[in-house]
């Protein structure tokens, strides 16, 4: 391996990183990850880091699984690429579509493949609008989403998302996309009970539908549990009310399962955990545990029937890429046969939840919210007042993330919320290590914030 400083210099000189400021990178140098095994990463300096983020919420079965390497190699030898355009198909795409149809909730039996969550959400945006056009209701073009949601970085998916920092750059959102508030009780619930607040936030959807005119609304998109927005677990009252409203107005529900899918919340899909009945599910990340770039839209039989009755002028060269499909199939086999989803629901998941909840005893932690194996800590200068570090939002979170890094733990921060989303194969001793290192990092960040 070339010396780290040399790699860092080359990286800073030529490599543009997503969501990273170039100047900071050149000064500090990127941390260069060289290998992974289970829940652990090794960097170019030989540090072993506990990856409490599963990469970017995706390495559900952990690093280093040779079965996936072999599945990729075998498929590359057999047929490295062929497209699925123009009525051609191939075995890996057929098998994966069939497997997904058997795993997803009843009535969602059709898959449109993509290479990422962003692409899949672009598909969804065009598909729901096209669906209503083909149904003879062309006025239904509006799509409703939530502020602070993340649905991807392409122009379509970035518009569906509700990240104001993203909207400020490059001409987003595109027309016809509307946002309502997120159900973040800790930060925005004021004096309301969580349940009343959940209802109030759900009813913003009804108000928005009425404002736009129900006959103009195509769909509502949301994650069952909002991930990149800070792991916002909604109050129990929220989803039943949202489901009632979309049913009442006959609006399509798109559940973005890019993070929640494939075991993250303790069931195969977050929609099951939260008790919702989507018409479309966006999938990516955990579908292949990140070993290959693959995503897709799993759609209802009704949507597939209508779209299939005409021509949907949409597709990607790599829709149903054979190597990605073969790897995803092997990943799903491992998740299933090793009982990994069951463990998140019944065994290591509850253990992580218990240990994670105990972090609320830390003086800087206001709430610890966790569903399955996705959780967040709200950092606060004043627990009782549910105060945020308003003046310099995100600074303490960043400090905390850096202290975690220094303590060989990878956690992410979203503003002043600290996130965990470890590989689903994390063991009890590893969970203990995670929580101990998180506590130590919180202590150090608090001491630093006070000076
Ligand atoms: N949807 C959700 C909920 C996500 O969290 C992400 C990525 O983090 C995406 C969509 C976009 O997926 P990708 O980065 O694969 O394009």
Automatic annotation (TrEMBL):
Show the InterPro entries listed in the entry.
Aminotrans_3 (IPR005814), Aminotrans_3_PPA_site (IPR049704), PyrdxlP-dep_Trfase (IPR015424), PyrdxlP-dep_Trfase_major (IPR015421), PyrdxlP-dep_Trfase_small (IPR015422)
Looking up Gene3D superfamilies in the UniProt record yields:
Aspartate Aminotransferase, domain 1, Type I PLP-dependent aspartate aminotransferase-like (Major domain)
Known CDD domains for this protein?
OAT_like
**What keywords are annotated for this sequence in UniProt?**
Aminotransferase, Pyridoxal phosphate, Transferase
GO MF terms here are: pyridoxal phosphate binding; transaminase activity
Membership in a protein family: Belongs to the class-III pyridoxal-phosphate-dependent aminotransferase family.
Q: Which PANTHER family match?
A: AMINOTRANSFERASE, AMINOTRANSFERASE CLASS-III
Q: Mind telling me what this protein is named?
A: Putrescine aminotransferase
